[in-house]
Amino acid sequence: LNRGFTEMHCMSGHSNFVSCVCIIPPSDLYPHGLIATGGNDHNICIFTVNSPAPLYILKGHRNTVCSLSSGKFGTLLSGSWDMTAKVWLNDRCMMTLQGHTAAIWAVKILPEQGLMLTGSADKTIKLWKAGRCERTFTGHEDCVRGLAILSEMEFLSCANDASVRRWHISGKCLQVYYGHTNYIYSISVFPQCKDFVTTGEDRTLRIWKQGECAQTIRLPAQSVWCCCVLDNGDIVVGASDGIIRVFTESLERTASTEEIQAFENELSQSSIDPKTGDLGDINADDLPGREHLKDPGTRDGQTRLIKDNGKVEAYQWSVSEGRWIKIGDVVGSSGATQQTSGKVLFEGKEYDYVFTIDVNESGPSYKLPYNITEDPWLTAYNFLQKNDLNPMFLDQVAKFIIDNTKGQTLSSSAQFSDPFTGAGRYVPGSSSGSSTTAAADPFTGAGRYVPGSSSDAVAPVGGVDPYTGMGAYQSAAAKLENIYFPKKDAVTFDQANPTQILGKLKELNGNATEEHKLTEDDLIILGKLMSATCNTSAETPTSQQLETLWRAVNWPEDIVFPALDILRLSVRHPTVNERFCSEKNHVQLTILLLKFLNPNGKQANQLLALRALCNCFVSQAGQKLMMEQRGEIMTQAIEMKSGNNKNIHIALATLMLNYAVCLHKANNIEGKAQCLSVISTVMEVVQDLEAIFRLLVALGTLISDDTNAVQLAKSLGIDSQIKKYASVSEPAKVKECCRFVLDLL
């Protein structure tokens, strides 16, 4: 009698690991239903039951798809590490749910029409109705990993904080269940009742009845990733040892005595690492001997540790069998805990270090796990990829890893600084796990909005992706790959603190003369424009908003800077770019911005005008305008070289880089000549290495694939002008990029 399951198909369609699977119920078109899988390749594959190749592939997420849930009428809800959930109908994306600030690990469609749930690494759960967020549930203290529906009105959630919570959809938390000793990854409900099962990083499957943990089943694997209850009440679990196991209460479906014995043997031979904390803090010297197993246990799943011939063994009490079952040997138990072992647990794996990285003030902080045996560049690269962060940061993150792990002993109490915020990072065994220091924006010295203050931080620049650099860290003998140019896309200035910008605008509005003063309504309108253009709302900027902005940017020079900052951010939005840069209005925009590029003007205005010009390059209309007005803009911009403000120099270098990108595409030799001449002039005076780096990328982009431009650059003596940068030791990207440019010359 075969009580097991047999493999019908091996389906393939993803180019990387599959992270979630879900059944789409039968429909008229597909009477057997469909199978949906989400993968690390950012795609969702849809299969029919009887074919190994996908029926179709859903593309749209920008990172791993890690959870799926199907609803009525062929709807599918997907959650991704890209912080969004998407609603699909057949092969089309209908809606994108935006609002979480970290990866969405769990999604569920509620029985009631149009209601959906998402659980996220930002520790919250959101309830969505027809694509809009209705409510946010807070209470979990760590990533929410799983969701399960109890009824139309109630649901369960489990999280990395080792708790399960029962919620009413009105927002109230009805109950919290404790039992697991580590992350809980998965939760599933029994049919027709409120009992449920959970699995987690503590090697267990736990069965909950009437709100209590009624049974604990240990497995010979550290991570029990997923569980599901079948219609017949059997429980299926998948674990990190690559094995799927089915547990049943039914006598006729129980495995053979040999299979059960094999499972127990496997369990008794597994080694339990005390550092995981699954068995509490262990001190081998205090443990009793084998005689301790003569006393029966008091509850099912109770664990007892004994010491036998110097070895520590773990046993678990089984009520049904009335005996202690060996569940493994405890290895290395010298009373080690996470604090004393020097290892840090992150997402179920052990690392030598787990750094907390804050990229900007408004966003979430990210955990960067690292083992001393790993390549820092590869770790940095994978970290940026995984969190969908700007590849521009590669050098910074890799250098941060190298600096903060160099010869450090784990007990060191030295303070390490985070590459983005200068704040302390997470040192294993320290009490606080996250750095709360806000990122320094060039504008917010000590948390206030001070434009152009020469803070050391440079606003993160969008887009330069030279640093996807596997080639970045190699021995000198290896051939370095040119990851710097030709640059294909414009670089933009995206960092923003909308609250501070609007706060400053309100403050200065108080000092404005009557003719310039904005009304309360105007300020609200500008606030809406900010949220529409800084991606915090899905709304499109309106004509009324843009007219209000236009009035504000025509304020007197001494108070205009917050309005210029709003313009700088807004012009990245396609609607605004089209409106301000199109045939009808474009002359006004260039006249306005060039007026601020006056050597005797205020530095804040110069900086923001340059950044606004850089950001014009994001859309077709802006590129066309920038190219048409190139002569005037370059002539005026070059005047900005004379100051000593490095942020202005970086913005100026970025403007040249964006021109180089356009000129490389258009292959316009007169334009290239003009741009080379400006770069050469600016190189004479600029000291800041980030600005130099951008000028070098611009140079390389201009002369790539164009022998005429190479000749032109040589005739301007650019090769001898840049030679000195080939020996710069830090940052390495300056030296590398410079050498690639010199190779072309």
UniProtKB/TrEMBL annotation:
GO CC terms in record: cytoplasm; nucleus; synapse
Protein family (similarity comment): Belongs to the WD repeat PLAP family.
Domain of life, source organism: Eukaryota
Location(s), subcellular: Cytoplasm; Nucleus; Synapse
Keywords: Cytoplasm, Developmental protein, Neurogenesis, Nucleus, Repeat, Synapse, WD repeat
PANTHER family for this protein: PHOSPHOLIPASE A-2-ACTIVATING PROTEIN
Biological processes per GO annotation: nervous system development; proteasome-mediated ubiquitin-dependent protein catabolic process; ubiquitin recycling
WD repeat start-end pairs: 97-129, 177-209
Residues in PFU domain copies: 316-415
Tagged with keyword Cytoplasm: yes
An example Gene Ontology molecular-function term: ubiquitin binding
Entry-linked CDD domains: WD40
Task of the protein: Plays a role in protein ubiquitination, sorting and degradation through its association with VCP. Involved in ubiquitin-mediated membrane proteins trafficking to late endosomes in an ESCRT-dependent manner, and hence plays a role in synaptic vesicle recycling. May play a role in macroautophagy, regulating for instance the clearance of damaged lysosomes. Plays a role in cerebellar Purkinje cell development.
Domain PUL intervals: 483-744
Protein name, as recorded: Phospholipase A-2-activating protein
